[in-house]
Amino acid sequence: MRKVFIKLSIVLVALSLAGFLFGCSAQKTSENQGEKSQGKTIKIGVLPIEDNLPFYAAEKDGLFAQEGVQVELVSFPSAMERDAALQAGQIDGQVADLVAVALLKKIGTDVKIASIGLGATPQEGRFAILSSPKSDITDLAQLKGGTLGISQNSIIDYVSDQMLTDQGIKLDDVKKMAIPKMPVRLDMLLSDQINSACLPDPLASLAQAKGAHLLKDDTYKNISQTVFLFRTQVIKENPDEIKAVVRAYGSAGQALTSHPDQYRELFLEKAQIPPDIKDSYQMPTFSQLQLPTEDEVKSVMEWMVAKNLISEAYSYQDLVDPSLLPNQ
């Protein structure tokens, strides 16, 4: 009888131990699965500009959660600080332009373009050359010998050169003045300290509202695009999360385009539209997700080589990742 009792006790202990070990294993597996399902939080650097509006709309409407991805929007006061954070690996993606993409790659930060932000059509993301309200210059041809405020070696520099060249104006006939900070450039234009300036919207529209003369804008031809980019390492390590972010951005862009009134207050707040034009300024429209064309990329690369900003043009394949677009 005692032997039976001892054997029974051993069996009960063994069963209890097995149950304990199984429970621990199941709990650990459950925890690991929970960590896996949560995935990486994708950090996106944003500036107070209209190009980033789909990120804010996606956050507001819960589109990131619907796509099963966690996204943190990290605000920066300037593109320089945002780019530095990208280089340091503190953020995973951002909206920039083709000039910025090539410069990032030049300094060793490998990135890939997932889609155009604004600029799939000439009407999206307008840049304009304007003359001072006090100036007699009312046509771009009259700018010969005058000063043009720009941010040097930037997309604004590129756009200015394209517009001048398309109008048959020799670049040497215009004196470019580097004024990196756009609010300062606007103030110098309005106070007649420079003859003209190249500005993006909404500052271009504000300048017009204050009497500046529109000499030329880029709505006649698709010269510039902003692009949605990620660090290549993050794409390799988290392809599903990155694709989910891209889908959410695209869905939010279409919602903004289809129902602008629903997002008007969000737009005025996040894009920091100047009070003087907040009632009249139109919300941007966003096209379906798509990549810039090979010709658009080639044009920017050739300009950068000519300006000695890069020693050799990057190929289209160097800069874009078609696999990140939906249904690719």
Automatic annotation (TrEMBL):
Keyword Lipid biosynthesis: no
Pfam families: NMT1_2 (PF13379)
Compartments reported by the entry: Periplasm
Ranges for domain Solute-binding protein family 3/N-terminal: 41-260
Domain of life of the organism encoding this protein: Bacteria
Record carries keyword Signal: yes
Family matches, as SUPFAM superfamilies: Periplasmic binding protein-like II
SMART domains the UniProt entry points to: PBPb (SM00062)
Gene Ontology CC annotations of this record: periplasmic space
UniProt keyword list: Signal
Signal peptide: 1-23
InterPro entries for the chain: Solute-binding_3/MltF_N
PROSITE patterns for this protein: PROKAR_LIPOPROTEIN
Similarity comment: family membership: Belongs to the bacterial solute-binding protein SsuA/TauA family.
Protein name: ABC-type nitrate/sulfonate/bicarbonate transport system, periplasmic component
